[in-house]
Structure formats: structure tokens, C-alpha cells
Amino acid sequence: AKLEEERRAAAAEEQAAALVEELRKRxxxxxxxxxxxxxxxxxxxxxxxxxxxxxxxxxFAETELVSVLFEFAAVADWDGxxxxxxFDLRTSFPVQxxxxxxxxxxxQAGLCPSATLLVAEHEEDATP
Length: 128
Hints:
The protein is of the alpha+beta class. It has 2 helices and 5 strands, in the order αββαβββ.
């Protein structure tokens, strides 16, 4: 029984390490595919705020799509949404959900020159 318990613990550790590695790769890919705009270029400065109170801020080219903000919130190195949990991004005033607006540019979505987005995790996805 003890051997089986050790095997299970080792498998869980390996799975956790694989998730961490996948997140690291997604983060690297994101940084390459969506570089921060140079000073003077049209951009949106977006601050993300999680339910925990954690925040992270980043500049994006105004031509980036709203879908990029969802990917950033998921892969950024911060205390944001739990890995694998689905979430919505919402402007604080006026309150507007960005789900369904993923194909709009940040300018079209009214997020330029700056915005604060609340990260709202979907409760029905909670895993025990």
C-alpha cells in the first residue's frame, strides 16, 4: 500500500511539473508573438486585477485583439486565474464583459489608451 501511495505521489508531482512547464512555454510563446509596443507607438496600457487583489500591468499594441488579453491573463506570472479555470475579463466602468469581443482590436473595444480589467473566474468550473 505504501508503494502505491508513493507511486501516486510521484505521478502527481510529474503532472504538476508538466503543467508548470506547459505554462512556461505558453508564456515564452506569448512574449515572442505579442511583444510590447515601442515608446511612441499607439498602445493600450491594461491593468488586470484578480479577485485575490493581485494586479499585473502591461502595454499592448492598440491593434492587438481582445483575445490576446485573455491569453495574457492566463499565462502571466502573477496570482491571477487558477490554471485551467475559465474566466471573463470585465471593464470596471462602465461594466462590460469582454467575452464575445475577442475578435475586436483593443481600439475597437474602447480599451485605449488605458483600461483596468477585472478577472472574474467562472464558479461552475471549480474543481475539487
